[in-house]
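Reopening this ticket.

The earlier resolution said the output was attached, but the attachment link was broken on my side. Pasting everything inline this time so it's all in one place.
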Amino acid sequence: MFEATGANVAAIMLAPFYVERIKMAKVTLVGNLKQYTGGVTELSVDAANVRQLFRLLSKRFPELEPHLESLAVAIDGQIYQDALLEPISPDSDVHVLPQIAGG
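Inline output:
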């Protein structure tokens, strides 16, 4: 246990305090997905790939989990239909959206 007394208190109070801000990808949930997230449409996440992103979203928004497999993902403007292994960098802009039907 640390006990702060006398000179220790002064040293602690004068010590510079640095907080390193962790850069995280910005994620936007598009369309009707907000009905499963309590209205949340934007958040920041620390995920190395789409699979990790989906795990994090499932934990935070359990109602969204059954819908994740049918969603498309756009990472920095590139749309992926089967994106689970696509990498996400800390400065990525990620959009999760309903899959685009083709014909």
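Reporter confirms the inline version is readable. The helical segments are 7-14, 50-60. The longest strand covers residues 93-98.
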